[in-house]
Amino acid sequence: MLKVAHIIVEEEFYISQDPSQAAGILRIFFQDCFVQGCDASLLLERPEGSERSATSDLNSLRATSVRIINEIKASLEVACPGVVSCADTLALAARDSIFMVGGPWIPILTGRKDSIVAASNQTVMASVPVATLGFSELKRLFASKGLSVKDLVALSGAHTIGQTHCGLAVSQLTPTMSRDLSPAFGANLSQICLAYHPAARKSHLTVHLDSLTPDSFDNAYFKNVLKKQAIFHSDAALLDDNEGLSYVRSFALSQAQFFKQFHLSFLKMSQIGVLTNVEGEVRMSCGLAN
Ligand code: HEM
């Protein structure tokens, strides 16, 4: 109980200061689970750079959110040394983040152990979905993690919070505007992300993934996808399949349906490739194996 209270109080402080950190923490958890399982391997520092630097999409993970996880873990080590793994710290922090910005409360299991090694860059690149993927590639990648099309669509709903760097959005804008975007939405995005001359792309700038309610975990993402107001090709691609389309429609119509399915899908995701007992360790510091 003490452990959980520590995590919640400290995290509440950070998220009340900057609600967008909820998105940063959730995305780190998703990427960690997809690379070699929910084992906090993404937090390990390697001489050649962490898993986070293996792809340009991952390189955009928020350093500030990684710091928050490390600080929560450091407090846990003071309160009860060697008990709560970094993998559980991250999973609980992601679960709490969702709730703190208005999403469903998801009771998750604990007992994850931490990996001793990080994945190779090759494994990272094969495991992490990038924004240019089409429906069949997304379906295949999620299936390889034991996740269905329903899970893919529900979990993509996490793009109802947070932001993207313009650098990851420009492929939708140049050389020609993608048909994934409505003309008005695309024009607005171009105004923010492209300078007057295309050579001066403002790749360091960020834009909200859901421009109307960026810090609120709601079902706006699905309405955005249907209106062609979601930024990535991987978002629009959910409409390219009848099953995907039917889930997008149903979650756009009912936030309750979305929350119910997100709950189930998040639980599944939080158990991907989990290490238990002697399969892993409880790291003292999330960046370093013991
Ligand atoms: C379906 C495949 C997915 C792709 C291709 C994808 C790709 C991306 C990209 C490119 C960004 C912007 C990164 C940046 O510029 O900083 C992003 C942001 C984000 N993604 Fe995804 N994502 C996917 C699924 C998911 C899932 C399953 C979750 C969580 C359950 C998730 C949670 C987030 C969040 C919360 C953000 C905002 C991060 C922030 O504001 O720091 N994504 N995603």
TrEMBL record:
Q: Which CDD domains match?
A: secretory_peroxidase (cd00693)
Could you say which protein family the record assigns here?
A: Belongs to the peroxidase family. Classical plant (class III) peroxidase subfamily. Belongs to the peroxidase family. Ascorbate peroxidase subfamily.
Q: What is this protein called?
A: Peroxidase
Can you list the GO cellular component terms from the UniProt entry?
A: extracellular region
Free-text cofactor note: Binds 1 heme b (iron(II)-protoporphyrin IX) group per subunit. Binds 2 calcium ions per subunit.
Q: Which GO terms describe its molecular function?
A: heme binding; lactoperoxidase activity; metal ion binding
Pinpoint the Plant heme peroxidase family profile domain residues: 15-290
Function statement: Removal of H(2)O(2), oxidation of toxic reductants, biosynthesis and degradation of lignin, suberization, auxin catabolism, response to environmental stresses such as wounding, pathogen attack and oxidative stress.
Q: Which InterPro entries match?
A: Haem_peroxidase, Haem_peroxidase_sf, Peroxidase_pln, Peroxidases_heam-ligand_BS, Secretory_peroxidase
Q: What is its main location?
A: secreted
Residues recorded as binding substrate, renumbered to this chain, are 129
Organism this protein belongs to: Adiantum capillus-veneris
Q: Where does Ca(2+) 1 bind?
A: 32, 35, 37, 39, 41, 51
Cellular location of this protein? Answer: Secreted
Keyword Oxidoreductase found: yes
| Keywords on record | Calcium, Disulfide bond, Glycoprotein, Heme, Hydrogen peroxide, Iron, Metal-binding, Oxidoreductase, Peroxidase, Secreted
DNA damage recorded as keyword = no
Q: Which PROSITE patterns match?
A: PEROXIDASE_1, PEROXIDASE_4
User: Which EC main class describes this enzyme?
Assistant: oxidoreductase
Q: Which amino acids does the record list as binding heme b?
A: 159
Catalytic activity, reaction form = 2 a phenolic donor + H2O2 = 2 a phenolic radical donor + 2 H2O
GO biological process annotation, one example: response to oxidative stress
Q: Which cofactor does it need?
A: heme b; Ca(2+)
The feature of type site (Transition state stabilizer) is located at: 27
Q: Could you say which residues bind Ca(2+) 2 here?
A: 160, 210, 213, 218
